[in-house]
Amino acid sequence: MLVCRQMEALDTAKIRQDFPVLQRMINGKRLVYLDNAATSQKPKQVIDAISNYYSNYNANIHRGIHTLSEEATEAFEAVRPKLASFIGAADAREIIFTRNATEAINLVAQSWGRQNIKEGDEIILSPMEHHSNLVPWQMLAKEKNARLVFLKLTEDGLLDIESLKEALNPKSKIIAVTQMSNVLGSIVPLEEVCALAKSNGTLVLVDGAQGVPHIAIDVKKTGMDFLVFSMHKMCGPTGVGVLWGKAELLEAMPPVMGGGDMISMVWRDRYTPNQIPWKFEAGTPNIADVIASGVAIDYLNSIGMDRIRAHEIELTDYALKRFSELKDVTVYGPKDPALKGGVISFNLKGLHPHDVGQVVNEDAVAIRVGHHCCQPLMRDLDLMGTARASFYIYTEKSEIDLLIDSLINVQKVLGHVAL
Amino acid sequence: MSLSDELYRETILDHYHNPRNQGTLEGDKVLSVEGVNPLCGDELVLYLKVENDKVVDLAIKSRGCSINTASCSMMTEAVKGQSLAQVEEMIETFKNMMMKPEVQDIPEEFEDLEALQGVKKYPVRIKCALLPWNTLIEGLRCAESRASGSTEGPKTVSTE
Ligand SMILES: Cc1ncc(COP(=O)(O)O)c(C=O)c1O
User: Fold this and answer.
1) Domain termination site, one of A302, A334, A365
2) Cβ proximity of A214 and A342 under 8 Å
3) In this model, does residue A79 exceed pLDDT 70?
C-alpha cells in the first residue's frame, strides 16, 4: 500500500523562539527582519555553542596533548564530516575552512587559477555574480592575460543556457557561477551547467553563498568541482566560510598561505606541505565559530532542507502576490517561485531605494537597499539600486504584510514623483 | 513625531520633488565636475561659472536619493550669486552643521539647509548630503587654478 506523507509545514512560531534577536523592539515596534540574504539571524543553540567553547574547553587545536586541546580538536574536526554530508560530499578531507565564501573563491583563483590558467584562456561567468565571484577572477585574468566571458540572462533574469552552449570552447577553463542570485533570486540549473561543462572539459565553481542556506545541494550528483559558501547566511556565526573541492583537484593545488598547520616538515630553507585539508588552513583557525557552525548545520538538519525550501517557495509566492497589489512598483527577476529563492528585489516608482529603506526602518522593517555588491548587474538593468526583502526559516507571511503596509506608507510620506 | 517625518520634512521633499537649478550650463567659462557616491548610487555633475571672484551661475544634473537631490537644490540656491569668500564660509558652516553634534548660530540664509540636519543621526546618509558640497569645493579649487593659468581638469569627487 502506498503511504502518502505530506511534508509538514515549518512551525515558524516555534522556530522564532530559538532566535533571541527576533524579540528586539525598534522604534517601539517588533523587528521584522527581511535582510536574510545579507546575513541570517542565529539561534540560541549556536550562540550557546560559542560561549560553551570559551567557558569550558577553549584551547588551541591540533598537536595539543592536554584534555582541553583534545576536546577542542575533536569538536573542531567533527564539523568537517558534518559539512561533507550536508552537501553530499563523500570525503571530509574535501572540506576546507576559510573566513567566508569570498576567501574561498580567492583561494581557488589564487591556487588552482594561477596554476592552470594561461594566456588566452577563458573564464566564464554569469552577469549576475556578486563582486566576490567576479573581482578574484578579474585579478587572475589580468595577471595571466586571460579573458572573462559573460553569459546572458533571459528576459526573466534566468541564466540563458543557450549562451553557455555558445560560449564553451577549448579555451574555456572554468565556469564560476552562483547557485542563486542575491539580487534577482534566480536559481541556476546547476546540473545542466555542470553536464555541459564536463563534456567540454571545463571545471565548475559554484558560489553557494545564497543557495546552500536555502536549497539542498548534492555536490556529487550535480557534478561540480568546487563549491563555496558562508556559514553566517545559514544560522552560523560570522567568520566561517567553506570551500569544498574534489580531493584530486585540491591535492594538486599549491597552498596560498604559509605558516603553522599547513606544513608537514620545515627546514631553514624549505617546507613540505601538509595533507589536505590542512594544507590550505595556515595559522590558528576560527575554532569557536567553526564548532558553532556544526551546531548550525545540526539546527538546519533538524528542520530539514526540503521543508525550508518549501516554506520559502510559499513565502515567495505570497510576497509576489502581495507586491502585485501595490501601485507603482517594479519587481525584478523571475516571477515563478519554483525558479526563485526567497528574495524580492524591487523599486517604487520615482523613489530612491535608500529613501525607501530608511522609511520602512521606522516601522522596524529591515530590508537592504543599494547595489547588493552587483554593480555590473545594476548597470545592465540601468538601475541605481534596488530595495530587497529576503526570507528565511523564521519569516512569516504576517511580516510580508507588514512590509507591504510600510511600503504603502512610504509612498504616502515621500509622495509619488515621476522619474 | 516619527523620525521619518523629521527626516523628510516638507522642505526636503519640496526640494526633492522640485529641485532648483537642475540641468546643465554651457560656455567655455563653465567648469564641470563629477561627484559620485558609490554606496548609494548618487551621481551628479556640477556646472560652475566663476567670474570676478563670484559664483555667477551654477547648475547640477543629478540622479540620487531625496537627501542628495535636496542638498543639491538647496546648495545651488544658497550659493548662486555669492562671492567666493561668502561661498567658502557657507561650505564651512554647512560642514560644521552636518558633522558636529551641537551647532548654534545657523545663519538666516540657511533656513532651508537647516532641514538637512535631520540626517545627522544616519551616518551613511550624511555622505548623500555632503556630496554636492564636496563637489563644489573641487569645482572652486579648479576655478582658482584655472584663473592662475593652469589647464589641469577637475577630479571626480567620490565619497568613498
Ligand atoms: C551570491 C553571493 N556570493 C558571495 C557572497 C559573499 O559572501 P561573504 O561576504 O560571506 O564572503 C555573497 C554575500 O552577500 C553573496 O550573496
Assistant:
1) A302
2) yes
3) yes
Q: What is the pLDDT of residue B154?
A: 82
Q: Quick check: helix, strand or coil at residue A29?
A: strand
pLDDT tops 70 at residue A152: yes
**Do A126 and A214 fall within a single domain?**
yes
- In ligand 1, the atom with minimum distance to the C-alpha of A230 is 10
Task: Determine the Cα–Cα distance for residues A414 and A350; give it in Å rounded to an integer.
Answer: 10
Query: Closest residue (by CA) to atom 5 of ligand 1?
Result: A209
B125–A contact, CB cutoff 8 A: yes
* Whether residue A310 sits in one domain with residue A217: no
* Single residue among A273, A302, A331 that ends a domain in this structure: A302
pTM: 0.93
Give one DSSP letter per residue of A244-262, joined into a string: EE-HHHHHHSPPSS-STTS
Prediction ipTM score: 0.82
Collapsed DSSP state (helix, strand, coil) of residue B112? coil
Residue with cell 590558528: A284
**Residue A1 pLDDT > 50:** no
Is the Cβ–Cβ distance between B44 and B68 less than 8 Å? Answer: yes
Indicate the pLDDT class of residue B100, thresholds 50, 70 and 90: confident
Taking alpha carbons only, the member of A175, A157, A53 closest to residue A121 is: A175
Residues B7, A27: C-beta atoms closer than 8 Å: no
Tell me the percentage of chain B whose pLDDT exceeds 90.
54
Determine, for residues A384 and B39 on separate chains, whether the beta-carbon distance falls below 8 Å.
Answer: no
Any domain includes A417: no
Termini Cα distance of chain A: 62
Residue-level pLDDT at A195? 98
In a domain, A255, yes or no: yes
How are beta strands B42-51 and A368-370 bridged, if at all?
Answer: unpaired
Of all residues in chain B, the one with the smallest CA distance to A360 is B4
Exposure of A310 in the CB half-sphere (CA atoms within 13 A): 12
pLDDT bracket for residue A417 (50, 70, 90): very low
B3 to chain A, closest Cα gap in Å:
7
Fold observed for domain B3-149: Sufe protein. Chain: A (3.90.1010)
Residues A313 and A264 in one domain: no
**Each residue of B59-87: pLDDT tens digit?**
999 999 999 999 999 999 999 999 999 99
Residues A127 and A183 in one domain: yes
- Shared domain for A298 and A342, answered yes or no, is no
Would you say the CB of residue A129 lies under 6 angstroms from ligand 1? no
Residue type, A30: R
Residue B1 scores a pLDDT above 70: no
The whole-number average pLDDT for the span B115-143 is 90
Rounded to an integer, the average pLDDT of A396-403 is 98
**Containing structural domain, residue A104:** 47-302
Among B110, B73, B105, B72, CA closest to B90: B110
Encode pLDDT of B147-157 as tens digits.
888 777 788 88
B contact test, residue of A347, A348, A356, A358 with most B CBs within 10 A:
A358
Nearest CA in chain B to A356: B65
Q: Does B121 touch chain A (CB under 8 A)?
A: no
